[in-house]
Amino acid sequence: MTPHRWPIRVYYEDTDLAGIVYHANYLKFLERARSEMVRDAGIDQAAMRAEGLVFAVTRIEADYLSPARYDDALVVETGITRLTPARFVLRQEVRRDAALLFQAVVTVACLDLTGRPKRLPAAVHRQFAGS
Question: In 3D, which of 88, 128, 79 has the Cα closest to residue 108?
Fold first, then answer.
């Protein structure tokens, strides 16, 4: 899959007193980028929810490599590395120009509204498999 690219600017609210991105905010950046990737793939999460299915992050393995700072222009790259009937694994990277600042492997499962694992809808699976 060609990685999905989503630009973001670091705002003051994203940083600590030293002007460095606060560690938990990288997870927010990743969430927004995942949501945009899913939207750009033509998947309507509101319609999925109406049918009783949602996506949930079940695992994140993250590496903080170099700090991002106030006013940096960053890009979050997201690509599917593994797809099963009920989940997908993503590699997400945060870059400033060519510099890799943060990377994570994120596992996302399909669940029903009670939290039980369910198969990905066939159309979603096809869309991700073809990405």
Answer: 88
The mean pLDDT value for 83-92 works out to 97
Find, among 61, 60, 49, 59, the residue nearest to 111 by Cα: 49
Specify whether the CB–CB gap between 111 and 117 falls below 8 A: yes
Catalytic annotation present for 112 = no
In this structure, the number of other CB atoms found within 10 A of the CB of residue 52 comes to 11
1 pLDDT higher than 90:
no
Question: Which pTM does this prediction carry?
Answer: 0.92
- DSSP line for 38-100: HHHTT--HHHHHHTTEEEEEEEEEEEE-S--BTT-EEEEEEEEEEE-SSEEEEEEEEEETTEE
| In contact, 49 and 96? CB cutoff 8 Å | no
Q: Which of 14, 16, 40, 71 is catalytic?
A: 16
Reported as type and span, the H/E element at residue 6 is: strand 4-9
